[in-house]
Amino acid sequence: MTMSFVTLEEILAARRRIAGKVRRTFCNLSPVLTERAGVPVFMKLEHQQITGSFKLRGATNAVLALDPETRAKGIVAVSTGNHGRALAYAARAAGARATICMSELVPRAKIEGIAQQGADIRIIGRSQDEAQREVDRLIEAEGVATIPPFDHRDVIAGQGTLGLEMVEDLPEMATALVQLSGGGLISGVAAAIKARRPDVRVIGITMERGAAMHASLAAGRPVEVEELPTLADSLGGGIGIANRLTFAMTRDLVDDVVLLTEEEIATGIRHCYHAEGQVVEGAGAVGAAAILAGKVRSDGPVALILSGGNIDMDDHRRLICGGTA
Ligand SMILES: *Cc1c(COP(=O)(O)O)cnc(C)c1O
């Protein structure tokens, strides 16, 4: 069943709740991408967020929105990495215990990052759905709360604070390029942008390999796709057959979706390193990659998000030295 969309008021409330607990990240003009696109291109440096991704916004908002008794019992979640890391940090900051369940496909660097935040970790199965079943079991057996990575109002509202910052810092923006996986980021960002600037086009960027939201939009309902290894590992995973919010919000608020090949994503990571001086993970680089691939048209300034920087540094080094990771 579809719920009412997350509102601008909820996003403004999220901003008040997480103020001082997350960073307001900078926007940089990219001369190289500007040259390539023929219009100014700005990058929001959200990979410099605490915990290395925007996920801290939604996680912090959702943890603080729990009632204190529930929070005290602890929080469990399934994650491809960045949500788990953010949730571990947000829980600790709020004095709560976090247990993070994840699949075997999650890279080692991400698992270590989560362990360092003090969370308990459980590795279960070869897909996010199998890890989710362990979360369901813990909720049932121990009565703990869960905060899902995207399909949750408080998570979406928290991610939406990023959209508010884009509107305020880049009032001239005509097009926003936003990573698209489960759709929590783009639902929040599009809700914020369209409330303030309905004329701005919001374009979802994702990979060709296992693009669950794209397949679902084409089918007109949430569908499952096979989960495949990709350089943009933070964009992997399904949207949930029982999706309540992000499918409908993405369908109604997002103007277009662009799909990228693995080689295009690799080019994006290399670009961010060599031309921008930024270490960015595959998912974080897809906005830049879409411009470099010539897959985005805009009549005016473009804003994109470097959404995360959590990449295994050995994989990163191999990639920027010309390898395939
Ligand atoms: C989670 C994530 C995304 C995608 O966000 P969704 O809300 O699942 O669409 C993009 N980039 C990074 C770095 C992420 O961690």
Quick one: how many beta strands? 10
Global shape: globular
SS strand fraction? 5-15%
Radius of gyration: 18 Å
Helix share, percent: 40-55%
Cα(first) to Cα(last) distance is 41 Å
Within the CATH hierarchy, at the fold level, what is the topology of the largest domain?
A: Rossmann fold
CATH architecture of the largest domain: 3-Layer(aba) Sandwich
H/E element string? HEHEHHEHEHEHEHEHEHHEHHEH
Family: Belongs to the serine/threonine dehydratase family.
Organism: Sulfitobacter alexandrii
Protein name: Hydroxyectoine utilization dehydratase EutB
Domain Tryptophan synthase beta chain-like PALP: 21-308
What does this structure look like?
Residues 21-308 form the Tryptophan synthase beta chain-like PALP domain. Belongs to the serine/threonine dehydratase family. It comes from Sulfitobacter alexandrii. InterPro entries: Ectoine_EutB, Ser/Thr_Dehydratase, Ser/Thr_deHydtase_PyrdxlP-BS, TrpB-like_PALP, TrpB-like_PALP_sf. The chain has 325 residues and is of the alpha/beta class. The protein has 2 domains: 8-53 and 152-320, 3-Layer(aba) Sandwich (Rossmann fold), CATH 3.40.50.1100; 56-146, Rossmann fold. Helices cover 45% and strands 13% of the residues. It contains 14 helices and 10 strands. It has helices at residues 8-18, 31-37, 55-65, 68-73, 82-93, 108-116, 128-142, 153-169, 184-196, 212-219, 246-253, 262-274, 286-292, 313-320; strands spanning 27-29, 41-44, 75-78, 98-102, 120-123, 145-146, 175-179, 201-207, 256-260, 302-305. The strands form 2 sheets. Strands 1-2-10-7-8-9 form a 6-stranded mixed β-sheet, with helices on both faces. A 4-stranded parallel β-sheet has the order 5-4-3-6, sandwiched between helices. The radius of gyration is 18 Å and the shape is globular. The chain starts with 7 loop residues before the first helix and ends in a 5-residue tail after the last helix. The site of pyridoxal-5'-phosphate has 19 residues, from α9. Residues 53, 55, 82, 150, 179-186, 234-235, 281, 283-284, 307-308 line the site of pyridoxal-5'-phosphate.
